[in-house]
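Please, does this match?
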Amino acid sequence: MRRLGLISAFVVSQGAVLLLLVGPLWGAAWLSGFRLYFANDQMSYAGIAVNVAHGHSPLTEPFTLTGASYYPSAWYTLLGIFSRLTHLPPWTSWQVCGLAVVSVTVALLGVLGWRMSRYWWAPALPGIALGTGCLAHFTSGYWYASLNSHAVLWGPFATFFTLNAEVIGMCACALVLAGLGWASTAYPNMTTTRTRWILLLSGVVAGAISSVQTYSFFTVTTLIAVWAAIYGITQAKSKARLTITLLLLAGVLLVGPIVGSNVSQIAVFAMLLLACLPGALWTIRKHWWAARWFGLAYALAASFQILRTLDGLLHHDPFLLYRQASTQGLGVSIWSGLLAGSPVIVLAIATLLGLVRRGDTALASLVSAALVSWVILSQNDHWGFSQEPYRLWIEGLIQAAFLTAVFLPRALRARGRVPRSWLTPAVALAGAALVIASWADIPGFAAYASQQGVVDTQASRSLALARAADPVSAPGLLAAGACIDPRELKLVSGGQVAFENLGLAWAADHIAIEKLAAEHDAGVLTAATLRAAGVRYLLTDSACAEPHFAARDHVVPDVVVAYRTGTRSGVITRWSITPQ
């Protein structure tokens, strides 16, 4: 009977993953298409995987294949390699591999929760944690809470639905933290051979996140540093260490904005990590053997992306300079953050109470670190870091939710002769009630995701775009006409498309590409602008008015491909632009 309950818990967890991440698109061509849910960034990221699948480098601007890209691209590179080896289209690889990583992560977290508590229902919690909302249905009447500019607060499901590299980074982050937490209880001295391999693997994964997704890397790095600091301060019982840490944090708050404006945001982040040293040094000395193995693996795995980015900053790469200064007005107020995160916060407090009562100091320090780092990173616009605070709020919510899901069952189990307390279960029930109430956000999210639908790459129009774009007889960029999305053109053709995502990477001729994009949006493309951007071919759709070029422009149609969509038929025309 117990085994049946355990299997049922895993089924519930995996069922939650499928319901949230596939359910909204059930009935659509989700496996052969690409999700249009916040598609601007997602289709731009997919361009990296498409390039690798076609044998190109992931380190260039993904649309034009010119210039340099400093965006962490390890996951998209792996997707491209997987697509090339299996002959699956990149968009199918995106869906299959993303879902596989999430499913495996939820299953492994469930195993850890069960191993640490022996409650049969523990494996169900990580999957259920994905469905935690932000009470937005009650506070804003929608499925997410809007803040300033384009900042939003939403539940984990809304981020995980993209299946992009941020999802992979958060999965890796959760596994590293939960795995280290489990190891700290299973092997308290952290000196066994098995522990060494756990530390090496955890260090490699934590460091490698830098090449997967930047914000996930900031999250895991901050959380581990704060964990080491809290554990050291509490175990050393040193008021001096606590006082020095608080003074250093106050210094970051006061001096950070100046350093961020005059030096760099990375320097401010380094200041934050240095503020953790008073407590962390005690932890490092106490567990020097473990810290050495983890730290070495982490540093080596993170070095490639860190050194490459620093090199770009030292050489004043214009995109990196732009990126550092483009995240203003995206802050999260304390009250908004507390209200939206209350379901997870209350459960985390219940977990903390239970772990403290059990004497699980390392785990209690980890849960405390999750809450403290969540606050620190989500307020980073106040201490000079200024890196999309709302995004880091969402990352903090997800990590706190996952860690709570893993450790709450252990916190609810009595230990030895320590008497049971009514407080932990009572707070846990209050948190569970808030989580259930937050599920009201899910229907609105599902309706929105379903409405956005997918780009069906097997539809007649998409196939016509691919045929018209390839093969080309001469090198040069492809430009999209007024009725054609350049992101879709990149996805289905794999060619060099005259476009760029301003927040991802810049083409070598950034100014010319930006001017071309402005003309595209206005619906008027000129031969002079096309040539200035290095465009060799222009694709147009008869659904829009055909462009008019004079004979002297030397722009002539050379390929015509018909398509039919429902009851409407159309033609994709490829225009050849002769260089002058």
